[in-house]
Design brief:
Elements (H helix, E strand, L loop, with lengths): L32 H22 L12 H18 L3
Helix pairs in contact: 1-2
Length: 87
Amino acid sequence: MPKSRVRQKKVYTPPTDVVPRVTRVSRKQSGIWLPITAVSLIVAGIAWLVVFYLSQGQYPVLSWRYWNLAIGFGAMVSALVLLARWR
């Protein structure tokens, strides 16, 4: 049985009357401060919560009562926001 011919694909040549656009998105690298700050906020938030629970609400700030929880979790959430911007 005879072998069939193999079709060759044509090479694409762009039209000469159209100027190609170069669309390149330049992404800036994050500074070294960003991951250091984020990790520091995570550690500080966890430390704040641990001190609050171990002291049974006496420390870090007695008059804030349960707002101490918001501060600890807020520090960790802000660290997550920073890490979302890290490139």
